[in-house]
Design goal:
The protein has 134 residues and is mainly alpha-helical. The protein has one domain: Orthogonal Bundle (Arc Repressor Mutant, subunit A), CATH 1.10.10. It is 54% helix and 10% strand.
């Protein structure tokens, strides 16, 4: 007897795995930087671009639109000439900051171990940094 995704104790499908769905929200390299930029309140579009090193206007626009669509960021337009556009975290977006902070802390503590493991692996496998499926 096979089990359906609803009866499995752990979801092994990206469509049903809660972790996969959350990682989909924050996995873009710019998402965390945008969210951290907004953590202290409303920020104008241009200021946000200046605060995030290396982000292009195109990537900033795509990132904030995605976050707005996901309900994590609110866009507010003030009808001035030219229009003033501010972004802020929604209450839902604010709830995601704590887990992101914990993940950032984990990375600070443990990422050097990941780098060391990669170097050890590469040495043991002749510099082949691409693991093969067996």
């Amino acid at each position: 007897m096979t089990s359906s995704p609803e009866t499995r104790p752990f979801g092994n499908s990206p469509a049903t795995c809660g972790y996969s769905r959350v990682l989909e929200l924050i996995s873009n390299k710019w998402t965390a930087l945008v969210m951290y930029t907004l953590r202290d309140g409303s920020v104008r579009y241009g200021e946000m671009g200046r605060r995030i090193d290396g982000i292009s206007k195109k990537m900033l626009t795509q990132t904030v639109r995605k976050l707005e669509r996901d309900g994590l960021v609110r866009r507010h337009v003030t009808p001035t000439v030219p229009p003033t556009v501010d972004y802020s975290l929604t209450p839902l977006g604010e709830t995601l900051l704590q887990p992101m902070k914990e993940l950032r802390q984990w990375a600070r503590v443990n990422y050097p171990h990941v780098e060391a493991a990669r170097a050890d692996y590469d040495l043991a496998h002749g510099g082949d940094s691409q693991p093969t499926a067996e």
